[in-house]
Amino acid sequence: MGAEQYRPPLFSVAPMMDWTDNHYRTVARIISKHAWLYTEMLAAETIVHQQGDLDRFLAFSPEQHPIVLQIGGNNLDSIAKATQLANSYGYDEINLNCGCPSPKVAGHGCFGVRLMLDPKFVGEAMSVIAANTDVPVSVKCRIGLDDHDSYNELCDFIYKVSSLSPTKHFIIHSRKALLNGISPADNRRIPPLKYEYYYALLRDFPDLRFTINGGINCVDEVNAALREGAHGVMVGRAAYNYLWNTLAHVDSAIYGAPSSGLTRRQVLEQYQIYGDAVLGTFGNSRPNIRDLIKPLFGFFHSEPGNNLWKRRADAAFQMKNITVR
């Protein structure tokens, strides 16, 4: 597989820890055939150390294409090995996380957004990834972190990474990160959006491709950004929390392609087939019913009865007599 076989990533769903797992991606792909999907970030060290159980972390169904594997890490040997181990799974692109502000990642882990302080290492890491795969590579980053938040510093990062490696695609979260102990949720809310940085990159690096991320929450806003010249738009929590309301319009409104024509009931019926097939397959009753239903909590967002659906579903999951069949 390769990225060139699919429509361009005008619309993509952001990699989100504990959210964009196999279950979410399965139902998302039933709804939209053209949205680009990303895995959760997988630490390179995890991939290397879980060689006996890689399917649990890396396997996905062929229907999920186009799909991007996002990895994180700060050890070149582990990054190289993780890339090699992922090759047989057939991802369409491999992305390096240079934007996560989580204390576990950017703090104790010393990767994620902290890598923006070392563009030379990121260039080397991207070269290592590219040398160990045949698919395109990309970087997801912030516009800066803490006091390292000037446009010139962002340009220095982009220039060095793209000069030292084959990286031609950058996904830009248009906020800086604050590494002073605030939560990842606050890092998506407190730092102001600076879209002007993103559009300046389009001007100053015409040979590169940039996807904008941050604060864009619906298809109308995606199309507005594309009209402004964005090469692509990445949507995060809105694509999860408002699953149907967002993804059901992507194919027709953004790609000009026919929609699937599926009703919500038909989507649920197809997803049930998947759920029945994978329930408990990894042992210890995982995935369980709660894992499988989690992506559907926002499926009826803004519809009458939505709150009742969520309450009853959540109450049902608390019942002790629900077992894996």
UniProtKB/TrEMBL annotation:
Enzyme class: oxidoreductase
Cofactors named for this entry: FMN
Keywords: Flavoprotein, FMN, NADP, Nucleotide-binding, Oxidoreductase, RNA-binding, tRNA processing, tRNA-binding
CDD domains: DUS_like_FMN (cd02801)
EC numbers for this chain: 1.3.1.-
Gene3D superfamilies xref list: Aldolase class I
Active site: C100
Binding, FMN: P15, M16, M17, Q70, K140, H173, N213, G214, G215, G236, R237
NCBIfam families associated with the record: PRK11815.1
PANTHER family in alphabetical order: FMN-LINKED OXIDOREDUCTASES SUPERFAMILY PROTEIN
This protein's name: tRNA-dihydrouridine synthase
Source organism (scientific name): Salix udensis
High-level lineage: Eukaryota, Viridiplantae, Streptophyta, Embryophyta, Tracheophyta
